[in-house]
Amino acid sequence: MNYKKYTKMYHPVPLENREWCGKEITKAPVWCSVDLRDGNQALYSPMTIDEKIEFFEFLVKLGFKEIEVGFPAASATEFDFLRRLIDEDRIPDDVYVQVLTQAREHIIDRTIEALKGAKNAIVHLYNSTSTLQRDVVFNMSKDEVKQLAVDGARLVKRLVSEKLDGNIRYEYSPESFTCTEPDYAVEVVDAVNEVFEPSPDNKVIINLPSTIEVATANVYADQIEYMCKKLKNRANLIISVHAHNDRGTGVASTELALLAGADRVEGTLFGNGERTGNTDIVTVALNMFAQGIDPKLDLSHIDDAIAMFEKCNKMPIHARHPYAGDMAYVAFSGSHQDAIKKSFDRFETKPENKWANPYLTIDPSDIGRKYEPIMINSQSGKGGVSYVMQNKYGYELPKKMLTEFSAVINDMSDAKHTVLDNEEIHQAFKDIYMNLKTPIKTYSYKSRNSETSTTVDAMIEYKSKVSSISGKGNGPLDALCVGLRKFLGINFEICDYTEHALERSSSSKAAAYIAIKDYDADKKIFWGVGVHENINTASVYALVSAVNRMLDFE
User: Fold this and answer.
1) Count of CB atoms within 10 A of residue 482's CB?
2) pLDDT band at 381 (very low <50, low <70, confident <90, very high)
3) pLDDT (mean) for 162-188
4) Who contacts 194 (Cβ-Cβ below 8 Å, separation ≥6)?
5) How much is the pTM?
6) CB–CB of 375/424 below 8 Å?
7) Cα-trace Rg, the chain
8) Is 288 buried (19+), middle (13-18) or exposed (0-12) by CB count in 10 A?
9) Strand, coil or helix: what is 508?
């Protein structure tokens, strides 16, 4: 790999006494979705007009107040989509539609034509200002590039005044800002603002895009803070950022830019966009939410956003996507599963507590999801198995039994070389422990109480022969143990017993868990489980199941 052919593409930022690194994000920015323009133009199959309308209405539902709807001069589809939004009165009065235009006369003219009748709109003018674009692509000097921007701004302002009667705002982007000399970026933007004349009642949006991400996120923050400090008339400017994800740090770049003074964020749902995509607004918004900040977007049903994204973009959401991925709330590690379960239990007993979980930054239910260790692998432990058994099927396994069963599940997954789903775990539990009928099958039992003892008479089948057994003890289980010990000629006793209602069962049932100690086999412990509508019968089944496991072991 010839790394020597590469060099940094950004210019040093002459920023003294940087302030962004000592700040915190305390409020949501102004959000602008560019799904329908930057996101749409990056698709193998761009959206149809009907799909764009459906997506637009969904963005409005999420709470976006500024939506870049397209590049009207690019195609008939883009132009006709905007016309339908306006002509069919689909744009709410509190929503601004944003249109993109290059600083070229015929494109600006076509763009303004598309906006006729719009109540609230943003005209987004841009031209490239970077060293590489000036030298290689356009072969233009700094003065020529600046003049192109100024002439474009003058034409936009004149045509808006002549042809539009709505509430029209202005936005300017020095494209490839991150690769532009900082002092020159200030020079160009100030020149454009002399044309647009920002005021308290007519603030101008200055969008500073990371058109291609070429540096660490802190460099972008330095660039944004430098612009905020150097631009004229800063109080009447809305500083916007539009970060791409070429280095995989689009979210970080955006968050640091907000610390550096940005007021507004352009991005897309789940980060769709050119090359490696745009800033993922869902992630940035939910990162704020996780810190107790109102994101000003309604992401309480994130699966709806996923469905819309996948339907219109025809692209999947990555399984490991923050917050939205299928595996975002699945833990395989045993220690993680255990910590998550204990934290859930604590929060549920005291819901007035602030959310605190070692491995989940938010409560999945807040965005319409659930934490579910629905898949257990060889790295999982007691926490995951316990969660599945309790939350899916209602079993509250005793700790020692849970340790034994978790080891069994671990071995099963290891042998299978893949995950086990809920039903596989449940079936293994039933096969190994529950209501076992071989080698002993119980047909019936009766108990009789006297003042000092209990007698149990039972009918069982063993080795294909039906026999009657009887035992006397200090209770039904103790009496049945006496009868079984006498009949089988083995020495064991009950060493653990618990029971509970099986609340998640489809009918009212009880579960009993019994451990017996085999004195003829180095005091080995055998667990059995009984499930029945009658708790006494469940206990008998649990005992017989434990004895059956002991007999099979021998």
Assistant:
1) 18
2) low
3) 97
4) 150
5) 0.78
6) no
7) 34
8) buried
9) coil
| pLDDT, tens digit (0-9, with 9 covering 90-100), for 8-39 | 999 999 998 999 999 999 999 999 999 999 99
Which tokens belong to 476? 């039904």
Residues 261, 280: Cα–Cα separation, whole Å? 19
Which residue reads 């019968």 in tokens? 537
- Within 8 A by CB and 6+ apart from 362, the residues are 286, 289, 290, 323, 355
What is the spatial distance between Cα 134 and Cα 393, in angstroms, rounded to a whole number?
Answer: 66
**Confidence at residue 25, expressed as pLDDT on a 0 to 100 scale:** 98
3-state SS class at 532: strand
Q: How far apart are CA 52 and CA 71, in angstroms?
A: 13
What pLDDT, on the 0 to 100 scale, is given for residue 348? 79
What is the spatial distance between Cα 379 and Cα 382, in angstroms, rounded to a whole number? Answer: 10
Q: Is residue 502 within 8 Å of 509, Cβ to Cβ?
A: yes
φ and ψ at 44, to 5 degrees? -60, -40
Q: What does the block give as tokens for 478?
A: 């103790």
**134 to 12, 155, 175, 185, 281: CA distances (angstroms):** 18, 22, 11, 13, 31
Report DSSP letters for 428-460, one per residue: HHHHHHBS--SSEEEEEEEEEE-SS-EEEEEEE
Contact assessment for residue 59 and residue 67, using Cβ atoms and an 8 Å cutoff: yes
Q: What is the token pair recorded at 150? A: 């100024």
Closest Cα partner for 71 from 117, 36, 33, 106?
A: 36
Is residue 85 left, alpha or beta, with left meaning phi > 0 and alpha meaning psi from -120 to 50?
A: alpha
Residue 192 tokens read as 């454009």
pLDDT at 380 over 70: no
